[in-house]
């Protein structure tokens, strides 16, 4: 059966998720954080008992914070049935209203904000609002877009055509390169995304990949680290929002280079490139102070 094209506006039921200090540490290591960063030390993200150092949480941790959510149905249940093997993560955004605590419990509500006909497939856009239990103001919001191959062609709205955060044709103001590990995906999957596409060659062979690929959100986490250290000087309170479009898969062991252009007024345009120079995250934008 085709997906439900009338699901735009559908909201999920409240769901709850929690995390502790160790889960934040595991995420940080999963996105490459170590004892030292090329720009600044990272013990505040990778240890909880370093003398004189208070543990902090990487801003991009919010993309995995809801993986353990339990409770009511997600808004995605309104889409009906579809083949999850045909689903590709297309875009991801986060907006932080305050720094993420090292331990917390959140209540999340998601919503389908758009369903677009791309011919060969459908793009489904969602938004999730997370609030710390016991508080009234949101802690963070996430936005996401997925592409479901084979679900297009019904003659619907193709969606926005104007591209945001277009990188200028000039040298970047700043570039930071991180080397991923050959087993990076095996580390990152422990944060909750255990899709065998990232660990099982028999599964990745079906997708036509030479070997299991790195999670897109792992590349997103590496990119967030570069932006945090390069632009915000490691201060999580200055990191407000980040968005980008996944444009090419990454293989574990590749080097990732994040090019940044300072636009002024607290905004940076960025691209992330793989070892061969191809763009793997495009149309990237960071809002900061």
Tally the helices: 5
Helix content: 10-25%
| Secondary structure: number of strands | 11
Strand order of the largest sheet: 2-1-4-5-6-3-8-11-10-9-7
Radius of gyration: 19 Å
Secondary structure category: alpha+beta
Oligomer classification: single chain
Strand content: 25-35%
State the fourth-level CATH superfamily of the largest domain.
Hotdog Thioesterase
Spell the H/E element sequence. Answer: EHHEEEEEEHHHEEEE
Based on the coordinates given, report the CATH architecture of the largest domain. Roll
Using the coordinates shown, work out and report the CATH topology of the largest domain.
Thiol Ester Dehydrase, Chain A
End-to-end Cα distance? 47 Å
Mean pLDDT: 94
Structure overview:
The protein folds into 2 domains: 15-149, Hotdog Thioesterase (Thiol Ester Dehydrase, Chain A); 174-288, Hotdog Thioesterase (Thiol Ester Dehydrase, Chain A). 15% of the residues lie in helices and 33% in strands. It is built from 5 helices and 11 strands; from the N terminus they run βααββββββαααββββ. The chain has helices spanning 21-30, 43-46, 184-188, 201-206, 216-232; strands at 15-19, 70-71, 87-96, 104-117, 121-132, 140-149, 174-179, 239-246, 255-264, 267-273, 279-288. It has an 11-stranded antiparallel sheet. It is globular and about 55 Å long.
